[in-house]
Design brief:
single chain; 74 residues; 3 helices
Amino acid sequence: ANEILDLLAEIHRSGTTIVLVTHDVKVAAKTERVLFLFDGQIAGEYLTDRYDGTVASLREREEKLTAWLAELNF
């Protein structure tokens, strides 16, 4: 799965828009933008910097994203 995500990140850096649907916070934490959908509507948007590839950064991003989702009562 990480190889696919790395490939998608490389494609995105070249200028292509990627739309990825996931329920996995670990996957979403590697993105720069997360849209939370509820009943077919955008219920929230989370923006962050580009993921630097480090384990420490990923953990921090996961924690922040999880806290944001909790604020949305997810």
